[in-house]
Amino acid sequence: MTDPTMTTFERLESEVRGYCRNWPAVFASAAGPILRDIDDREYIDFFSGAGVLNYGHNEPHMKRALLEYLAGDNIVHSLDMATVAKAAFLERFDEAILRPRGLRYKVQFPGPTGTNAVEAALKLARKVTGRDLVIGFTNAFHGMTLGSLSVTGNEMKRRGAGIPLSNATSMPYDGFLGDDVDTIDYLEAYFQADGSGIEAPAAVIVETVQAEGGINVASDGWLRRLATLCREHDTLLIVDDIQAGCGRTGPFFSFEPAGIEPDMVCLSKSLSGYGLPMAVLLLRPELDEWSPGEHNGTFRGHNPAFVTASEAIERYWRDHTLTRAVEASGEVVASCLEELAAAYPEAKGEVRGRGMLRGLFCDVEGLAEEVCAAAFRRGLVLETSGPLSDVIKVMPPLTIDEATLADGLDILRASLAGVMRDRQAEPELAAVGG
Known about the structure:
By secondary structure, the protein is α/β, with parallel strands linked by helices. The chain folds into two domains: 6-59 and 320-433, Aspartate Aminotransferase, domain 1, CATH 3.90.1150.10; 74-316, Type I PLP-dependent aspartate aminotransferase-like (Major domain) (Aspartate Aminotransferase, domain 2). It has helices at residues 6-12, 19-22, 48-51, 60-71, 84-98, 114-129, 146-150, 155-159, 183-192, 220-232, 303-316, 321-343, 367-377, 402-433; strands at residues 27-31, 34-37, 42-45, 106-108, 134-137, 168-171, 203-206, 209-210, 216-217, 236-240, 264-267, 280-283, 349-354, 357-362, 380-381, 383-385, 391-394.
């Protein structure tokens, strides 16, 4: 077969494809924070597979463990049968992640993707409480299956369901009504008022940082008040840590700084460490009311992912080294974004995020998209975030080296400068043409 071109995908792949329209290159290989296309052009990756590749592409220790596992004719697919690889993951996860944090959770393998974990959490919350309603938040994103869409805020994605999305309602996220409004007061009023039209909910599902919704960050105090409110009303608190977890904001779980202990936690994306599909639902033991086989999935036993996940935990989560590195690199990114917001006030920029999940909101229509497109032409992979694609989202691998991070940020600087220069030139050219 000859090298593919973009026409191959235009001719044969569904119109639903998205990312390849933004980044019109045929990628061939990758290592660490670098992607290469079929023409051997290099791109710095500030996208990280939408948060799947926290440790970069083809992390060598995980690759070695995976290749050794496959070469030994070990189990690849197992449904929920007991395997050596699954046992090793469960033991290591409990020993290195849960117990040091004082967390007591059972681990459920619901299927290979984040939306599988969310669906399992919603279903279990309704089963345990005997209630129907689940509360989500404005600008939330929880997945593309029907239950996940029902608690997702994005109008375009919700509309794609094609049917009414019921038994869920949306409440204002932290800051949604302005900096002077504590939206927990708003939520509490709905919980307590007989005339609110809101029945007692089975659960509340929340992201501590809304990665897809605009890099909106919930404060620790807001999260603590939410946890208290849920506890007072016997409502389960579900934290969707699919994109913000596994170290993306610094600690392994993004909710750790708030000092809360959710009833359930959804994990996926970087959990396998290598880009292999894997998801889990963590649940308090007393909530584990499932009957055997009551919730299942054909690919919930993906053993190669258990192998790389175990290696990721062993390699990166035995101490706080990675967390400290994420916090330090995150400050470098934040400083760059603050510099850009100050240098281009006409972009009406606002810096958002935590750790290595950062963004620059641009209150100018189309600007964030133009900057990301310009960055790609210069060799940097960036995506936008937010319901109007108005946030430049910066999400490099957590393990990126200082030099490559600096190179990527320099490309971002040059890209914003170029776009602003071109935008300023357009009225001048129009005046000359007139």
